[in-house]
Specification:
Chain A: This is Dynein light chain roadblock. The structure is a homodimer. Chain A is an alpha+beta fold. Helices cover 36% and strands 29% of the residues of chain A. Chain A has a 5-stranded antiparallel sheet with strand order 2-1-5-4-3, sandwiched between helices. In chain A, a hairpin with a 3-residue loop joins strand 3 and strand 4. The longest helix of chain A is centred in the middle third of the chain and has 25 residues. The radius of gyration of chain A is 14 Å and the shape is globular. Strand 3 of chain A pairs antiparallel with strand 3 of chain B.
Chain lengths: 102, 96
């Protein structure tokens, strides 16, 4: 199992992503859909986290229903106003998913 | 109809494209380059996923709407372009 990044590394990565052009927000949620890190205000975070968590679960089960050996690695939801990118953690033992609002 | 065929042919000839399915708003496939069984399976499951994605976007902001969806998995990538009356689904192997 790969070592978990240190708190400092996580902060670094978030800062790097946040400084990209157009990034509106970053949220990290655990497998229960509870936000554990965010660059947005509380209300938006809770709203996004809850709704997107459900969508990711649906996307993941869609992929697995088509092929049980397959698994979701990334999801991009493009809308008129923005794009939401979701990276579920590849490590099966880890329990975090990142959402990036762009 | 000829334009549709043209477009499908153009997409199908891209490297890595494994299949194209067009479904109507009820999720019924109306055009496909895959076999029947796969088509029905993909169409049904993806239709539900798109409905979920669309309502997620609208729940966050009722003025917003879904314009595209990309589902990347270990084995392939599924791209869905929803339209008013149809969805276009393209399955590709992104490493090709």
């Amino acid at each position: 199992m790969p070592p978990f990044p240190s708190q400092a590394e996580v902060e670094e990565t978030l800062k790097r992503i946040q400084s990209q052009n157009g990034v509106q927000g970053i949220i990290i949620v655990n497998t229960e859909g509870i936000p554990i890190k965010t660059t947005l205000d509380n209300a938006s975070t809770v709203q996004y986290a809850g709704l997107i968590h459900q969508l990711v679960m649906k996307a993941r089960s869609t992929v697995r229903d088509i092929d049980p050996q397959n698994d979701l690695t990334f999801l991009r939801v493009r809308s008129k106003k923005n794009e939401i990118m979701i990276a579920p953690d590849k490590d099966a033992f880890s329990n975090k998913t990142s959402f990036l609002l762009y």
